């Protein structure tokens, strides 16, 4: 029996220990973006279908593991910026994925112990892990909401959010490597707009999004592999990504390659080596 099989068979026990509830049925025969990211980051919460499609992506883009890490690193830089420079003490992280090193609540609470975080995802495996990470008391509070970005009204009105965050005060909205999972027909810009409109002045939104702008051929191969794996993946241009920020004010350096957004240490030799756009904007009025 493999380590992955051991973990999956123990999932019900994990959920029972942390909440007394059994998870929804998990279809491990289909790849899931959160578990693929876990695979690329060296995690163990993934299954053969996730690894197979992850390897197909890697054949088209050999640096895909580095790109996954760069997204994770951006999340850390973004959260630290929002806590240190913008005074944000509460975060809404949508599409959080499987918890790993450097989760939003860990970064935020390391900077300000009273930080509060609500995670949102729609994978029951993520649900089990995220519930196990909930913290409260002296180190702020963390909650998990099992929901979909396609349902912004449900996210905003859910008791897990309203009981954890004060939406009359500034919020840091994290949309890291999630919007590409929505087709244009889902109107992702409209979904994001509903979230932005609900947040008060002083709030910030952080976004990363894959793009074919950097390597159209390789990204085309990845999109084709995703279609074969029944996974939605929609790369978008810089202009389309910038549109997600609406009329919020982009902070420097604007919408740039993810590796080039305020890197720690020396600037990367090739900031376009990770095929993602990234940016942070704030609500001024």
Helix proportion range: 40-55%
Spatial shape: globular
CATH architecture assignment name? 3-Layer(aba) Sandwich
CATH topology: Rossmann fold
Mean pLDDT: 87
Gyration radius (Cα, Å) is 18 Å
CATH superfamily: Vaccinia Virus protein VP39
- End-to-end span in angstroms? 57 Å
Query: What is the name of the CATH class?
Result: Alpha Beta
Structural class: alpha/beta
Oligomeric assembly: single chain
Structure explained in plain terms:
This protein has a single domain (64-282), classed as Rossmann fold, CATH 3.40.50. The chain starts with a helix and ends with a strand. β4, α10 (188-198) and β5 form a beta-alpha-beta unit. It is globular. Helix content is 40%, strand content 14%. It has helices at 3-9, 11-19, 33-40, 48-60, 64-84, 104-111, 124-132, 152-157, 159-162, 188-198, 216-228, 238-243; strands spanning 90-94, 116-121, 141-146, 172-176, 204-210, 249-250, 256-257, 276-282. The chain has 12 helices and 8 strands. Strands 1, 2, 3, 4, 5, 6, 7 and 8 form an 8-stranded mixed beta sheet that branches. The protein is an alpha/beta fold.
């Amino acid at each position: 029996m493999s380590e992955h099989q051991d973990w999956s068979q123990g999932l019900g026990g994990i959920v029972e220990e942390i909440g007394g509830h059994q998870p929804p049925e998990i279809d491990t025969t289909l790849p899931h973006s959160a578990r693929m990211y876990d695979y690329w980051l060296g995690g163990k919460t993934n299954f053969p279908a996730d690894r197979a499609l992850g390897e197909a992506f890697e054949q088209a883009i050999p640096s895909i593991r580095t790109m996954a890490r760069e997204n994770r690193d951006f999340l850390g830089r973004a959260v630290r910026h929002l806590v240190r420079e913008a005074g944000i003490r509460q975060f809404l992280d949508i599409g959080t994925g499987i918890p790993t090193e450097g989760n939003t609540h860990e970064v935020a609470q390391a900077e300000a112990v009273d930080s509060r975080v609500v995670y949102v995802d729609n994978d029951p495996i993520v649900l089990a892990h995220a519930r196990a990470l909930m913290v409260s008391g002296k180190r702020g509070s963390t909650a998990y909401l099992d929901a979909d970005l396609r349902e912004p009204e449900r996210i905003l009105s859910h008791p897990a959010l309203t009981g954890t965050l004060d939406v009359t005060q500034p919020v840091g909205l994290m949309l890291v490597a999630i919007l590409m999972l929505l087709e244009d027909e889902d109107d992702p810009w409209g979904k994001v707009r509903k979230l932005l409109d609900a947040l008060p002045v002083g709030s910030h939104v952080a976004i990363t999004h894959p793009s074919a702008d950097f390597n159209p051929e390789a990204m085309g191969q990845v999109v084709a592999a995703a279609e074969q794996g029944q996974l939605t993946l929609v790369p978008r241009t810089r202009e389309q990504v910038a549109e997600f920020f609406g009329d919020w004010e982009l902070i420097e350096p604007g919408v740039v390659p993810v590796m080039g957004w305020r890197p720690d240490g020396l600037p990367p030799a090739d900031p376009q080596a990770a095929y993602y756009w990234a940016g942070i904007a704030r609500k001024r009025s």
